[in-house]
Write a structure and sequence with these properties.
This protein is α/β, with parallel strands linked by helices and about 425 residues long. The chain has three domains: about 1-175, Molybdenum Cofactor Biosythetic Enzyme, Chain A, CATH 3.40.980; about 180-255, Alpha-Beta Plaits (2-Layer Sandwich), CATH 3.30.70; about 260-414, CinA-like (Maf protein, Alpha-Beta Complex), CATH 3.90.950. About 40% of the residues lie in helices and about 25% in strands. It has helices at about 20-30, 45-55, 75-85, 95-105, 155-175, 195-205, 230-250, 260-270, 285-295, 310-320, 320-330, 335-345, 395-414; strands at about 1-10, 35-40, 60-65, 90, 120, 125, 135-145, 145-155, 180-190, 210-215, 220-230, 255, 275-280, 300-305, 350-355, 370-380, 385-390. The strands form four sheets. The protein has a six-stranded mixed β-sheet with strand order 2-1-3-8-7-6, with helices on both faces. Helix 1 (about 20-30) links the parallel strand 1 and strand 2. The chain is elongated and about 85 Å long. It starts with a strand and ends with a helix. The relative contact order is 0.08. The model has no long low-confidence stretch (mean pLDDT about 95).
Length: about 425
């Protein structure tokens, strides 16, 4: 079965509010083997909401509508369902009594417009809302000779989620055929999205029953695998079989087979090697340290770091000589290596990693353009310097440099 989630509310079409209910709902529906094929956000306009519902009814089995069930003039979900289906609304005396009872319990006077929440769609089952005044509604109906399920839940998360769990999920479970969705998330670092797809497409195309999605962000590639079968073990075996082949093809680019972040994997490797890491950052301004320390227990392996933005601080804190900076420039392989050695010696860490570069948008030249970054990794036995040229704006260049630094350490520890 397929589902479409429609979130109703003009506020979610602004930069200030987000629809988070649909993420929660999607996870629960996937657990029942139901695919969420579409999601949409519609403003508080009757014709637009009704149009979205009609479109959803032509392409999915279940339509989930979130929001628009309150007492105000812009709460139009009930009216939109009625318009889309060509049926009627009725005022339910049981719900009227429930609204009056709730107001009495809260010792507040009830405005007359609250009675709008007692309007029930023809043929719908009312689903009580323990955390608010607007009840949900469940409609099992026919549309173009096909069975369709429409359910409506209020928008506030503290009302939406409990009502969905207690009232909707059991009803969906009763009508949905037994299906199970197995998923895996694989991650790879510093491989281009186009290169990744060129490498992997011949492999995942041989598994048409598995949906494979490739997502990329600043050097980090995420592969989402999803398979739906009648038995969970069958679906999981298929996903695991494909995942193993993708892992082999990705080789050292791949760092996670179960969705872990690169910093989690890095801390894992440091732990099993009983090694410590210290960082010296310039252009990334502490971004690397922030990501590493976001992992619980990182203090066992992360010795600390220095954000040495000025040349004077590179000299005083990291023992980078003024002569080296004057001769090669602060953005150079020589200074990057001196920074890595300096932070390792200062902290006594097993490894020292450094980043120096030009994040932009200004400060570049023909010899050293914006996006040029040098990274150095130092331990007691081996030094390594990498020169990279990253494209994009200042934030993207910093993100790429941070990811590249973590990947250098990961590969050394492997």
């Amino acid at each position: 079965m397929k589902c479409e989630i429609i979130a109703v509310g003009s506020e979610m079409l602004t930069p200030y509010r987000q629809d988070t209910n649909s993420l929660y709902m999607t996870e629960k529906l996937n657990g029942l083997g139901i695919t969420v094929a579409y999601k949409s956000i519609v403003g508080d306009r009757l014709n637009d909401i009704a149009g979205a519902i009609r479109t959803a009814l032509t392409r999915v089995d279940i339509v989930a509508i979130i929001g628009g069930l309150g007492p105000t003039n812009d709460d139009l979900t009930r009216e939109a369902v009625v318009q889309a289906l060509g049926i009627t609304l009725r005022r339910d005396p049981v719900q009227v009594a429930a609204l009056h009872s709730r107001a009495a319990q809260l010792r507040i006077s009830m405005s007359s417009n609250n009675l709008k929440q007692a309007e029930v769609i023809e043929g719908a089952i009312v689903m009580p809302n323990k955390n608010g005044s607007a009840p949900g509604q469940w409609l099992d109906t026919a549309y173009s000779n096909y069975r369709k399920i429409i359910f409506m839940v209020p928008g506030p998360p503290n009302e939406c989620k409990p009502l969905f769990d207690e009232e909707c999920l059991p009803r969906i479970r009763a009508v949905a055929p037994e299906k199970h969705i197995a998923t895996r998330v694989l991650k790879a670092a510093m491989i281009a999205e186009s290169k990744c797809d060129e490498l992997l497409e011949p492999i995942y195309k041989a598994y048409p029953d598995i949906e494979t999605t490739i997502l990329a962000h600043a050097g980090d590639i995420q592969l989402n695998l999803s398979c739906t079968k009648g038995a969970l073990a069958v679906a999981q075996n298929r996903v695991d079989e494909l995942a193993l082949k993708l892992e082999d093809a990705l080789g050292e680019w791949m760092y996670s087979a179960n969705g872990e972040t690169l910093e989690q994997i890095l801390m894992y490797y440091l732990g099993i090697r009983q090694a410590t890491l210290a960082v010296a950052e310039s252009c990334t301004g502490g971004m690397l340290s922030e990501r590493l320390t976001s992992i619980a227990g990182s203090s066992l392996s992360f010795a600390g770091g220095v954000v040495a933005y000025s040349n004077a601080l590179k000299t005083s804190m990291l023992d980078v000589s003024e002569e080296l900076i004057n001769r090669y420039g602060s953005v150079s392989s020589e200074v990057a290596l001196a920074m890595a050695e300096g932070i390792r010696n200062k902290t006594g860490a097993t490894l020292g990693i450094s980043i120096t570069g030009i994040a932009g948008p200004s400060g570049g030249s023909s010899d050293k353009p914006v996006g040029l970054v040098y990274l150095a990794l130092s331990d007691a036995h081996q030094n390594e310097v990498v020169e990279r040229k990253f494209n994009g704006d200042r934030e993207r260049i910093r993100e790429f440099a941070t990811l590249q630094a973590m990947d250098l350490v990961r590969r050394r520890l492997m």
